[in-house]
């Protein structure tokens, strides 16, 4: 059995922060939950760097302690998920504007690739 070694600065978090962590977890699972919930647990575990068991325990309310480092990992994963969603929405908006303007998708890809902060393929970024 592998034990998790926490730094000397590890602190337990409050109940309100645990609720925040569970809400973040629900959002992350919804993003990855296109299939089975068990597969989504694994995807979120890889995104956060936490164990799948920790993710599952937090989801089902079996974990009563959560460390600040774990909350930070969940917040970072949420931030990355929001950035992915923003890139996808920006790409979708650019496609809709191109269609409205009568431009082809190929011309759009060139314009999007030149625009700062946008990526022609929102998933690749």
Word description of this protein:
- This protein has 125 residues and is an all-alpha fold.
- It has one domain.
- Helix content is 66%, strand content 0%.
- The protein is built from five helices and no strands.
- The protein has helices at residues 15-32, 37-48, 52-59, 68-101, 105-114.
- Helix 1 crosses helix 2 (37-48), helix 2 (37-48) crosses helix 3 (52-59) and helix 4 (68-101) crosses helix 5 (105-114).
Q: Figure out the total of helices.
A: 5
Radius of gyration: 19 Å
How many domains, in number, for the residues? 1
Can you write the helix and strand succession as a string?
A: HHHHH
Number of strands: 0
Mean pLDDT metric: 80
Multimeric state: single chain
Largest sheet: none
Unreliable segments (pLDDT under 50, ≥5 consecutive)? Answer: 1-9
Question: What can be said about this structure in brief?
Answer:
The chain is an all-alpha fold and 125 residues long. It contains five helices and no strands. Mean pLDDT is 80; it is low at 1-9.
Describe the protein's topology.
Elements: H1 15-32, H2 37-48, H3 52-59, H4 68-101, H5 105-114
Helix pairs in contact: 1-2, 1-4, 2-3, 4-5
What keywords describe this structure?
125 residues, mainly alpha, disordered N terminus
């Amino acid at each position: 059995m592998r034990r998790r070694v926490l730094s000397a600065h590890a602190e337990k978090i409050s109940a309100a922060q645990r609720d925040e962590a569970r809400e973040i977890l629900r959002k992350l699972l919804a993003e990855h939950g296109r299939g089975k919930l068990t597969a989504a647990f694994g995807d979120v575990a890889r995104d956060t760097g936490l164990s799948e068991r920790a993710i599952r325990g937090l989801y089902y309310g079996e974990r009563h302690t959560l460390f600040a480092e774990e909350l930070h990992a969940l917040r970072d994963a949420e931030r990355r998920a929001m950035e992915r969603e923003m890139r996808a929405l920006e790409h979708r908006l650019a496609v809709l504007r191109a269609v409205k303007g009568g431009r082809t998708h190929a011309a759009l890809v060139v314009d999007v690739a030149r625009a700062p902060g946008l990526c022609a393929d929102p998933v690749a970024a």
